[in-house]
Amino acid sequence: MTGTPKWIRLLIEALVLAGALLILAPVAIMAFTSLKPDAEIIHFESVLPQQATLDNYREILLNPEEIPLLRWLFNSLFISVSVTMLVLVVDTMAAYALTRLRLPGAKVVFAVIIAMLMVPGQIMLVPMYLILNALGWLDTALALIVPAGAGVFGVFLLRQFFLGIPADLEDAAAIDGCTRMGILVRIIVPLAKPALATLAIFTFMGAWNDFMGPLVFLDNVDKYTLPVGIALFQTSYYAEYGITLAAACLATTPALLVFVFFQRYIIEGIALTGLKE
Amino acid sequence: MTARRFWRIYSGYLFLVPYAVLFCAFLALPLGYGLVLSFFRWEMLSPAPPQFVGVDNYAEAFQSDYFRNALWATFRFTLMAAPLTVGMALLIALGVNAVSDKRRAFYRAAYFAPAVVSISVAGLVWRFFFQGEFGMFNAWLEPWGWRVPWLTDTRLAMKSIVFMTLWWTVGGPMVVLLAGLHQIPRQLYEAAAIDGANAWRRFRHITIPQLRPVLLFVAIMNIIGSFQVFGQVFMITRGGPEQSTRVLVQYIYETAFTHYRMGYGAAMSWLLFLCIAFFSVLQFRLMRER
Question: Rounded distance, CA B146 to CA A149, Å?
Fold first, then answer.
């Protein structure tokens, strides 16, 4: 800010830096502790391991029967990628119909959809369980993939973006004999890439970190996703913090990598939700 | 209207069909079905068929000490977590906003990073921090002869959960507030500086009023989110000690998926929804004002 003395600016930044280190510390401590042998964890000497070892990781990765971590990783990837693709296709078509096709009644339809933004998913858990049970989808990946396609956020986000695309382009394409599907695929989608990227990353992270859904709808340990699988450590490896934290590290790395590479999209997407009306 | 004309006008709705099907099946239907369910006694573990019982499930909830305890725990959590998180988020956003452009993106990402850690991982890590005997916090405090019962004292456990939640969730509102600060026209500050307004007055009379809509949005979203707290409690305390951290969603989860009392679970879900709906409607009104 203009007009603030330099030493105050430095002081503020020092505080901001200290806070940032503090908030990152738990992740670092998790990583350091996962490298400690059990004895060092129980008798705490320092944050850094005195005798770093990969034993905890070895024990996890060499016991795939007891701890099917790679299986969970695969399940998480499969479910998150499927959800993301479903949401992108379905939401793009819906948002296109609601903004660009001048459909009579589109405003009302959109209002109904938007009203659902206010309904928290948690309160539908019980009826959803019974519906999925009736469909025979419980304990399958379908239970986590298909219902996620009903999410409202993507339609809302894409509609905001599509509204800003000038109509001239579509009109020109239509005169040249382009079908509506052709217009959507060749004109709208390329123009909406930033919004689609934001939605894709958001959806992926949301599905990846979803805890309640897999906890309730999955039963078989081999079907679990990473977050729910990791939660098992709370009971099965109750006092073995070395193994627990090593598993936690392995489970967190993919999400953190996605975040490091795409953090701009993620953060700007979040910022957008609060500012656009 | 000829069929051709009708087709030309309405065929565009075909694009909406895939989403509409999912929307009806997995949003509209569960919402309505949940309400219907809440008037039935449906114990999945007993062979008895679902039976209509009117408002019995709701009556049971209000007479149940467990439900009242869970409701109170949820309120306690929200009353502590929401103001603390939004206040800290504002403080951090102001700090990060004052840093030069080059490094701002780094700080923003750093403060947001915990939000991308899944709740089960975060829960395991913090359970290790809070652990009574060899947990990280008590290991640090040991040289001073302190041993804090972070998770085993009924008065402290919820505060520990709130503290962990602050770490996990402060990034989201911070990012939104930071974007809000960015939208305040610089000229306002420059004009105020020329008029001789000091930093506090600029904050009080420019930043706060200009930021008000964003601040309200963030606060209400945070309250709505806090009412739905579950993961951290489930992972760290399982509701203990003596039910002091047993929140509503956990109680619903146990009722429906441990005891398989679907009707009762659905009724409590709707009560939770009503609590949240109050704030949602408030949010909706504020959004329309803008």
Answer: 51
Give the three-class secondary structure for B40.
strand
d(CA A251, CA A31): 12
Region of A3 please: left (phi>0), alpha (psi -120 to 50) or beta.
left
Q: Which residues of B fall within a CB distance of 8 Å from A256?
A: 113, 116-117
Interface contact B125-A98, CB threshold 8 A: no
Residue A245 CA, chain-centre distance (Å), reads 21
Domains of chain A: 1-53 (no CATH), 67-275 (1.10.3720.10)
A97-108 confidence digits (pLDDT tens)? 998 887 888 889
pLDDT category at A277 given cuts 50, 70, 90 is very low
Q: Minimal Cα distance from B170: which residue of A? A: A23
Task: Tell me the C-alpha distance between A196 and A5, whole Å.
Answer: 43
Q: What is the pLDDT of residue A275?
A: 57
Task: Return the CA Rg of chain B.
Answer: 24
Give B129's contacts in chain A (Cβ within 8 Å): 26, 29
Nearest partner of A78 among A246, A230, A214, A185, judged by Cα: A214
Please report the domains of chain B, with CATH numbers, ordered by start residue.
Answer: 63-289 (1.10.3720.10)
- State how far the Cα of B77 lies from the Cα of B165, in Å rounded to an integer: 10
Which chain B residue has its CA at the smallest distance from A114's CA? B284
Q: What's the token pair of residue B1?
A: 């209207």
pLDDT tens-digit profile of B96-117?
A: 998 888 888 899 999 999 998 9
Chain B CB within 8 Å of residue A5 CB: no
> Residue A48 has what DSSP assignment?
S
Average pLDDT over residues B234-262: 92
Peptide bond between residue B241 and the one before it cis (omega within 30 degrees of 0): yes
DSSP state of A150: G
Phi-psi region of B242 (alpha: psi -120 to 50; beta: other; left: phi over 0): left
Give B120-165 as a DSSP string: HHHHHHHHHHH-TTT-HHHHHHGGGT----TTTSTTTHHHHHHHHH
Q: Chain B contact for A127, CB < 8 A?
A: yes
Q: How far apart are CA B78 and CA B237, in angstroms?
A: 17
Query: Closest by alpha carbon to A44, among A198, A181, A241, A210?
Result: A241
Task: Establish if B278 touches chain A: CB-CB under 8 angstroms.
Answer: no
Give the SS3 label for residue A239.
Answer: coil
